[in-house]
Amino acid sequence: MKTTIDIPEDMLAEAMRFARAKTKREAIVAAVSDFNRRHRMAALTRHLGTCRNLMSVKDLDEMRKAN
Question: Rounded to an integer, what distance in angstroms lies between the CA atom of residue 24 and that of residue 15?
Fold first, then answer.
């Protein structure tokens, strides 16, 4: 998708340096991808410890020994 946005040069230069991007587009794609990944992970952590059907380490060890 093509869009026109105004990004401060210093911020874009810093993003390019951190992402080791050769182009502005590459830096923006890396930044958006990282933003989305972080928010997906944050959404997953809200569910941490809510599943009661997972095996315990002890159960897993016993199952491995049985096979």
Answer: 9
> Per residue in 4-41, pLDDT tens?
999 999 999 999 999 999 999 999 999 999 999 999 99
Contact 21, 27 (CB under 8 A): yes
What does the alpha-carbon distance between residue 29 and residue 13 come to, in Å, rounded to a whole number?
Answer: 14
Q: At what angle do helices 24-45 and 9-19 cross, to 10 degrees?
A: 70
pTM (2 d.p.): 0.66
| Distance, CA of 61 to CA of 49 (rounded, Å) | 20
Within its chain, how far is the Cα of 4 from the centroid?
Answer: 25
Rounded distance, CA 57 to CA 64, Å?
Answer: 11
Cα 59 from Cα 61, distance rounded (Å) = 5
